[in-house]
Write a structure and sequence with these properties.
With 352 residues, the chain is of the alpha/beta class. The chain has helices at 5-34, 101-104, 114-121, 137-147, 165-168, 188-195, 197-208, 215-225, 227-231, 235-255, 273-283, 294-306, 314-318, 334-348; strands spanning 45-46, 54-55, 60-64, 69-74, 80-81, 94-99, 126-129, 153-161, 177-178, 181-182, 260-265, 310-312. A hairpin with a 7-residue loop joins strand 1 and strand 2 (54-55).
């Protein structure tokens, strides 16, 4: 018996839906059995009594985003380590490396991170990677306070990423921690990311193509270049806090006879032409309303006022052939960090 057109259409839709669900279920089962997909977000955090959060001592994780594949090991003291056997090495003489995800080495193994490379390149002193993703100048100062008086501390390096370090002073850092992860770890999307290997596989393919850049990130980049934001906007308060925290770090180092060196990493729009154009288009800034290296100029002026020795990495980064950054991850590629570390070795070495 021939079905009427509406029923034929309904039957086709039902069969198509069933076929799609079967294909999804088959793909999910196949990935789970033969190619399990690791999570692409860091789940290495723990609460802290002073800091908003910290790295969980002993945490280990393999991270794959489709664009990057890397390992994270945290030693017994809560600092990034070379491997699982580094169970809490307490160096006799060390430089304290402070910073956020750029100094931490997001997207890279520890030995490819800035402080990991300096640890191997500087003679006669270890470099402790005390950088934590999401930290800002206030947290840098709090970590330094924890280390003051500890045996072996001989100097401090602050690596300040100007793409968000000003904002970090005014952002709320009290973020929930669930399963070792920060931020929005509830709801259907998190459940899907946590549960489905197919979802993580498809996300990895999108990340490998550089997809996923949010409009909010572009607005943030544009705000940092806007003259008005530093006068009448929230960046006026952010600049004040940034200077206050660097001044407190300077004073603590002076009181404890510790040399201090500041590394200024420019906002990505300062060196990335593609991201610059995307940010300007999103914010619709007029030519007279913005300046590309404005956050760098603000940070350099703070360091000059405080009498801090510093290195501004923008000119160096502009000489490097692209790609300087991971497309989706947004952080430095390993070859970029190697060039930066080699330059800093010469400046941090005795007599440099």
């Amino acid at each position: 018996m021939k079905l009427p057109p509406p029923r034929r259409l309904a039957l086709r839709l039902a069969l198509s839906t069933a076929a799609l669900l079967l294909a999804v279920a088959t793909a999910e089962f196949g990935l789970r059995q033969f190619a399990p997909q690791p999570i692409s977000w860091l789940s290495i955090y723990a609460p802290d009594d002073v800091l908003p959060y910290r790295l969980a001592p002993g945490a280990q994780q393999r991270v794959e985003t489709g664009e990057t594949s890397w390992d994270v090991f945290v030693d017994a003291f809560g600092y990034r380590a070379d491997g699982p056997d580094a169970a809490g090495r307490n160096e006799a003489t060390y430089l304290l490396g402070l910073g956020d995800s750029f100094a931490f080495g997001h997207g890279c193994n520890q030995e490819q991170s800035l402080y990991g490379l300096l640890d191997r390149g500087l003679e006669g002193v270890r470099v402790r990677n005390a950088a934590v993703p999401g930290y800002g100048p206030t947290q840098y100062r709090q970590v330094l306070e924890h280390h003051l008086g500890q045996p072996g501390l001989v100097g401090v390096v602050v690596t300040s990423f100007l793409g968000n370090d000003f904002h970090d002073g005014i952002w709320n850092k009290d973020r929930p921690i669930t399963d070792g992860a920060l931020g929005a770890t509830a709801g259907r999307r998190y459940w899907l990311k946590k549960t489905s290997h197919l979802y993580r596989f498809l996300s990895a393919q999108a990340h490998a193509l550089g997809l996923g850049r949010g409009e909010s990130d572009l607005q943030l980049s544009a705000e940092l270049m806007s003259h008005a934001a530093w006068v009448d906007g929230r960046l006026a308060e952010a600049e004040r806090i940034y200077q206050t925290e660097l001044e407190r770090i300077r004073d603590l180092c002076r009181e404890n006879d510790l040399p201090l060196f500041v590394v200024l990493l420019p906002a990505r729009t300062t060196t990335d032409d593609e991201l610059l154009q995307a940010a300007l288009q999103t914010a619709e800034l007029a030519p007279e309303d913005w300046q590309r290296d404005l956050p760098t100029q603000k940070a350099a002026a703070v360091c000059a006022r405080l009498g801090l020795p510093y290195f501004e990495a923008g000119e160096l980064l502009r000489t490097l052939p692209p790609p300087v950054y991971f497309r989706f991850d947004g952080h430095f590629r390993p070859e970029t960090t190697r060039v930066l570390a080699a330059n800093l070795e010469r400046q941090l070495a005795p007599g440099g």
